[in-house]
Structure formats: structure tokens, C-alpha cells
Amino acid sequence: MPLQTRLAALADDRLSAADKGLPARADGLTVREFLATEPALAEFWTPLLALDERALAHNASVIQDWCDDRGLELMPHGKTTMAPALWQLQLDAGATGLTLATPGQVRTARSFGIASIMIANTLVAPAALAFIAGELADPDFAFRSWVDSVETVEAMEHGLAGLALPRPIDVLVELGGAGGRTGARGVDEAVRIAERVAASPVLRLAGTAGYEGSLGHDRSPAVLDAVRGYLAEMLAVHAAVRGLADGELIVTAGGSAYLELVAEVFAPAIAEEGTGTRWILRSGASLLHDDGFYHGISPIDGELTPAMRGYARVVSHPEPGLALLDGGKRDFPYDEGLPVPFGVAEAPSAVERQLAGASVTALNDQHAYLRADGPLDLAIGEVVSLGLSHPCTAFDKWRLIPVVEGGGSDRVVALVRTFF
């Protein structure tokens, strides 16, 4: 079923009291009926995660134009949001497909009609291989997975044995780094794996893959040099395996932290090879950006706009310099930095009153500790707006996320549905 058709069907889903954050009056209405009442964000209960429509559209345009200008395709990592409505936004902007991380995510994307998928992971579970074998009967479905060892290749062959495979599965050889995550340890090992793939009757060598983001979490000279060196090794693998491949090749790298280095290192090869190879960036967090980790590390931070915001209410003020808010680890991301308090208002839609010198110092399951060196100008019941860090661990805590119109308007124009 086409993605647009499935998304339209979601508008007929009925809302209930089990949907976190929704106003009580939404209970029993369909999404379409509720949005027709032009709800305001101020009606929603705290804690709350909200998105900004204008910021989302801006970021989708910025990252797509950035890739187009450098000869890169964009296949954003859909696992960041697991929100088909946001996948559609980037596909409409020019993305050529989606990247995903698990077989279950691939199955979800296929249920929404996504026609081009890369799983940035190995695919060895027999049930998942059988599912992909069945999906490949669709001639319009393009699928690629990664391999990082000969043993992985053999596991795929074993899992595919006896299945009616309409065509070989495209696989990319993943290059890793010493002490890092997945990936072949070194160029020679990657080439050996590529040779084994090329000899497989059920797999097709489709290129080279890697993830440079696991090499560092800052922009120190040592980390940037390590990323450049790793990307150069990816090109070495690509050059070594080109003669083994029969058909189109892909080279793919790029999270959201070092994407300019991907473009820089790949640029000479992109210019030399022209259309002979597809060069794919997989940045997923760029659509949302943030006020924490990516704000500090993204090379295009000034061009992107944070598109998500948290809201939590003061429920306790036990000491002059301490307030407890009603949002915690169950509601907001915290693995790449704690929420950042921006301001206080009587409701999320009101003009913010700045909170000078305040910071969130800890999160419990359902509480945030807001502290300051001096007295906090806060009253019980006031709402604090929070900048968030790391989109990849924000969306999984919410089934429905309100989207405001943006530009100063807090009118809710959409409810984004997630599928984790």
C-alpha cells in the first residue's frame, strides 16, 4: 500500500485516554476530528514532547540541498523517529529511500510501502531472511543489508537455503574500526569478505558501508583525523572491490556529526567516478536537530533549527534553589545530555519568562531536578520549556507527538504517530 494511503488511514485512528499527553476532550475522537477543532498546545497535559512544523520543513530542505550540492544521495536513518509521516516529509524533499536498523523496522517500513530500504546492520535471522525473500518478489523493491564477516555471509546463505529467492540479496561490506562497533577490522579483511560475497549464489556484492560516528563524540583534532583516516580506508575498500561487483555499487557513510568530512573525503572520488557509483549519506538526526549533542557537534548547526521541545510542570518547590518537574526519563532523552531549561510560562503557548542560571541536574523516571545557585522564580504549576538532546532517544517514549504550526503559533496541526 502506498505510503500516502497508509498515512491518510492513520487520520481515522481513534484517540483514547491511553494516549499520553492528549487533552481529555480528545478521547473517542479520530485524529482527523480532533485536529479539525484546531487544538492549542496549551491544552495538552504535561509532560509533553512537541514538534515544530516550520522547523521540520526547514531542516528537511537544508539537509537535502546540502547533499544535492555535494553529489550525495540522502537515505535518512528512519529509526531516529520511526514516524512514517516524517519519512514522507524527507522522501518528498528528495531522499531516495530509508535506512533502518532492525528487521522489525524494515517490516514496518514495508507495511507503509517504502520501496527503497537499506538496513545498516547484518541480516541473519532465518525468519527475517524469509520475509525479505518474499518481499523481493516485488520488482520495485530495492533492499540492501550489510555484512562484516565471512561467517555472516555463511549465516545468510544458511538462512536462505531452500527459500524461493526471486533475486540475490544486495549486500554491502561494512568497514569497522579497532575497538569500535561492527565492521570488518581493516581493508584486507573487508576485501576478503567482498570476495566471498561475490562468490555467493544468493547474495550480490553491492558496495561498501561504514559508520564514522562511532569513532568519537567531539570535534577534537584527534577525532577529526581519525574520521578522515577511516573514510579514506572506506575508499580503499571501494577501489579494491569494484572489479568484483556485477552491477551498481554504493558507498555509504555519514551520521549527523561528521557529515562534512564524508563530503570532503569522498569528493575527489565522486568527481572522478561520476554516475558510476551511488554515494549515500544516512544522516537521521538532521531532520530534528537538537539543543544538546548535535547543537554542539554538527558542522551545519547554524543552518539547522531544533524542531523538538519538551514541556514539564513544576510539581514541587521544596527548597529555594530546587524545583521538581513532572517529566523524567520516561518522557525525555537523557543519554547524550540532560534537558536544558529555556523559560517559564503559564502554558506552553505563552511568552516565555527566562530562567537565568537554572539547569536540570538529574532525571528520575518521572521527575526532573531543576536547580539554581540562588532562589528560583518559580511557582507550583508553572510550565518549563526544555531544549532536548539526541533525537534518537526522544521519539521512542511517545506514541503520538503533537506538531505545532510554528512561527509563534501554538496551533496543533498534526499528531505524528510512531511505530517502535
Automatic annotation (TrEMBL):
Q: Which SUPFAM superfamilies match?
A: PLP-binding barrel (SSF51419)
Repeat recorded as keyword: no
Q: Which InterPro entries match?
A: Ala_racemase_N, D-amino_acid_metab_enzyme, D-ser_dehydrat-like_dom, D-ser_dehydrat-like_sf, PLP-binding_barrel
One Pfam assignment: D-ser_dehydrat
User: Does the record bear Lyase in its keywords?
Assistant: yes
| Domain of life of the native organism | Bacteria
**Which residues does the UniProt record annotate as the domain D-serine dehydratase-like?**
307-405
The molecular function terms of the Gene Ontology recorded here are: lyase activity
What are the alphabetically sorted keywords of the record? Lyase
Question: Which family is annotated?
Answer: Belongs to the DSD1 family.
Q: Which PANTHER family match?
A: D-SERINE DEAMINASE, ZGC:162816-RELATED
Output this protein's name. D-serine deaminase-like pyridoxal phosphate-dependent protein
Q: What is the protein's species of origin?
A: Agromyces hippuratus
